[in-house]
Amino acid sequence: MKCRKCGEGAALELRRHNAAFCAPHFTEFLRKQVREAIRQHRMFTPDETVMVAVSGGKDSLALWDVLIEEGYRTVGLYLDLGIFDYSRESREKCEAFAAARGQQLLVESVESAMGAPIPEVQKATRRPTCSACGLSKRYLINRAALTHGFPVVATGHNLDDEAATLFGSVMHWQTEALPRQSPALPSTHPKLVRRVKPLYRLAERETAAYAFLRRIDYIVEECPFAEGATSLAHKEVLNRLEAASPGAKHNFLFGFLERARPAFDRPEAVRLAECAACGQVTTGEVCAFCKLVDQVKRRVAP
Ligand code: Q46
Ligand code: ZN
Ligand code: ZN
Asked: Considering its fold, how many domains does the chain have in total?
C-alpha cells in the first residue's frame, strides 16, 4: 500500500475514500477535513476564542490539538463528572495535555453544581445514568461558556458518533431530535452558545490514528457507564455495514444532512424562555437541569 500523495509506504488505508496515506500526509488529510468542516459551516473565525470541551479521550484531545496547530485561540473545559477513577484519570490527561502546550484548562465539577457526582445523581433520580449525565453536560458546558464569555463551544464528536446518534433517532423516530443533529448549531437565544463539531467528517479510527501519530496521551478506558449503552449497539451495527460497504456511515450521515434534515427543521415551533430558577434557557417554566438538582437535593440526605 502506497501513500496517495508521495508514493511512500502508507500508514493508514481509508477505504471509504479509496485512498492510503503515509503518516505526514495522513495528518495533513485530517487537518484539511477539519478546515473544510469549519469553513463549510462557518463554525468560528480566527478572532473568536473557542472553548473546547475535553473529556480526556482521543477525540476531544485530538480536536484541541488540531485547533491549536491551526492557530486558533482556544481554552479547554473539563467537566469533572465524579465517576470514580475514570474521572480522576481523564482529568489528569487533560491537565497534562494543557500544561504541555501552555493552554488554559477550566475545570467544572458536577458535584459542586448539583450537590452530588453523576453516580449519586443517577441513584437519586432513577433516570438512566447517561441521560442524567448528558443533560448535565449540555447545561454546564453552555453555562461555563456564557460565564467566561466564549461565543462558541467545540466538541470532539466524530463521524461514528454522529452516525450512531442519527441511527438511534431514526430507529425510534424521534423527529424532534432530528433538527438538532447538525455539525453546527447556531445560537438561537442570547443565553445559548453556538455549538460545533469540527471532527464530524472524520471516522473514529482516523481520530485514533491522529492521536497516536501526534503522541497524544489520552484515556483509553471508556466511562464505566458506557458499557451496554444502546449507542454502542448502534455503532456496532454501523461498523458491520461499513465493513460490508465502505462509506456506508458517511453516506448515511451526509445524505441526511444534505437531503433530509431541512425537512425536519421547524425553528418557529420551539419557544424559548428563561428558567424561573436559574435564568438559563428552557422551553418550560423551570429547566430540566434545575428539576434534576431539585430531585437530587430531596433524595440525597445532607
Ligand atoms: S460520560 Fe456520561 Fe458518557 Fe459516562 S455516564 Fe454515559 S454520558 S457514558 S459520553
Ligand atoms: Zn505521503
Ligand atoms: Zn434552571
From this structure: 1
